[in-house]
């Protein structure tokens, strides 16, 4: 029997392949207690004071979508802009679903509305950074951490999680 020695290149390639396999294993979704459809598997009758946000759409979407110029094309949970124009305050989850999305990905609010981003504790360290530099939170991973911004002017505001932008962790706030 011959004994093979493991050189550095083989070790690095093998470790990278195993790491990629493990990372992708969590991306399949469909089981693990969630509804497999972006929901949390519950019927929503838990008696909580939730705003309806489950990391998916969470409510009615606008009948006519704002033009995001393709910004949300690679966002896995974007299926329309959730209409929250009647709320004074709106909560968006940071680290929703698979831990690498904002939930909901896009919301419509009225001017003067405060958006509160609340960390789920999933997916590692995240931040909320406006594409135009208008606001930026600290990068943290602790469940329950919050960051807020009040949108006074009508317009379309896009933002990202800087550490996870490349995997599509992006969101938008449409202000009327």
Provide a descriptive summary of the structure in words.
The protein is of the alpha/beta class. It has a domain of 94 residues: Sandwich (Immunoglobulin-like), CATH 2.60.40. It contains 1 helix and 9 strands; from the N terminus they run H-E-E-E-E-E-E-E-E-E. A 5-stranded mixed β-sheet has the order 1-4-9-8-6, with no helix packed on it. Strand 2 and strand 3 form a beta hairpin. The longest helix has 18 residues. The chain starts with 7 loop residues before the first helix and ends with a strand. The N terminus is likely disordered. Its cofactor is Cu cation. This is Halocyanin.
What is the H level of CATH, i.e. the homologous superfamily of the domain at 82-175?
A: Cupredoxins -  blue copper proteins
CATH topology of the domain at 82-175: Immunoglobulin-like
In the CATH scheme, the class of the domain at 82-175 would be Mainly Beta
CATH architecture of the domain at 82-175: Sandwich
Number of strands: 9
Largest sheet: 5 strands, mixed
List the helices and strands in order: HEEEEEEEEE
Strand order of the largest sheet: 1-4-9-8-6
Oligomerization category of the chains in this entry: single chain
User: What does the average pLDDT come to?
Assistant: 78
Helix percent reads 10-25%
Low-confidence parts: 1-57
Shape: globular
- Structural class comes to alpha/beta
DSSP summary: helix tally:
1
**N- and C-termini, Cα separation:** 74 Å
Strand content: 25-35%
Keywords:
single chain; Immunoglobulin-like; four-stranded mixed beta sheet; 1 helix; 9 strands; globular; Halocyanin; metal-binding; copper ion binding; electron transfer activity; BlueCu_1
């Amino acid at each position: 029997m011959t004994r093979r020695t493991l050189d550095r290149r083989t070790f690095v390639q093998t470790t990278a392949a195993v790491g990629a396999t493990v990372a992708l294993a969590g991306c399949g979704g469909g089981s693990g207690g969630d509804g497999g459809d972006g929901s949390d598997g519950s019927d929503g009758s838990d008696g909580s004071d939730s705003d309806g946000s489950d990391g998916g759409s969470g409510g009615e979407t606008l009948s006519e979508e704002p033009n995001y110029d393709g910004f949300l094309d690679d966002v896995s949970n974007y299926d329309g802009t959730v209409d929250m124009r009647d709320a004074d305050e709106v909560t968006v989850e940071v680290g929703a679903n698979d831990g690498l999305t904002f939930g909901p990905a896009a919301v419509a609010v009225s001017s003067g509305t405060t958006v509160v981003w609340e960390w789920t504790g999933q997916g590692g360290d995240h931040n909320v950074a406006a594409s135009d530099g208008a606001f930026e939170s600290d990068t943290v991973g602790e469940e329950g951490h919050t960051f807020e911004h009040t949108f006074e002017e009508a317009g379309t505001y896009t933002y990202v999680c800087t550490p996870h932008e490349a995997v599509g962790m992006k969101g938008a706030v449409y202000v009327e």
